[in-house]
Amino acid sequence: AHWDVHRQARNLGFVGTANRGMALAGDRDVVLLNSDAIVTPGWLGRLAACAESDRRIASVTPWSNNAEIASLPDFCRAAPVPEHPERWAAACAAVEPEYPEIPTAVGFCMLLRRRCIDEIGGFDEQRFGRGYGEENDWCMRARDRGWKHVLCDDAFVAHRGNASFGPLGLAPGPESMQRLLAAHPGYLELVRDFIDADPLAPLRRRILDGME
């Protein structure tokens, strides 16, 4: 594989750095991957295949032990990094993917489609320059333009993460949520309705049954 490393002359913060990375990627799709994520065999190819399955997909998120609405084995509950992440990845890959729609991507590992970036732009540095909430804002902006966000249910990426952020994917404190809700008043209701319905439950059970 070919890697390019770009060093910055000054600290742009997460949002500015992510936007710079999106620009440097040219006309390609982008994957944002946290430094505390642990990838597994085949993860990137599966995310790409999922993204190519529907032209209106804006973002793709894999399963993880710690990914809020995309968490395994328990919904919206962080679990420790498994001893053998590749076993979880194999169990996910063994099922026929459905690529179910989710209300928002989960920022620890998310593929963003270039076509959507070109249409709606990158992250909002002015509103979310300090970080937290920028990916949720981006996802809502995409939804407003008819794009959708999906779970790549045949991929698994482990995540050490911080269990205190909770199912809405925002840092502690009211500022992040206030900034997000100022732009998207319906965000909380959208995510809470998804959590109440838990449409991913059958998919989790299918994967867990395959691990027994």
Please describe the structure with a list of short key phrases separated by commas or semicolons:
212 residues; alpha+beta; five-stranded mixed beta sheet; 9 helices
How would you portray this structure in words?
It is built from nine helices and seven strands; from the N terminus they run αββαβαββαααββααα. The protein has helices spanning 13-24, 43-51, 85-93, 114-120, 125-128, 134-144, 174-183, 187-197, 201-211; strands at 30-33, 37-38, 57-63, 101-102, 109-112, 148-156, 158-159. The strands form two sheets. It has a five-stranded mixed β-sheet with strand order 1-5-3-6-4. Helix 3 packs across helix 9. The N and C termini lie far apart (35 Å).
What is the chain-wise order of helices and strands?
HEEHEHEEHHHEEHHH
| Average residue pLDDT | 92
Number of strands: 7
Question: What is the gyration radius calculated from CA atoms?
Answer: 16 Å
Strand order of the largest sheet: 1-5-3-6-4
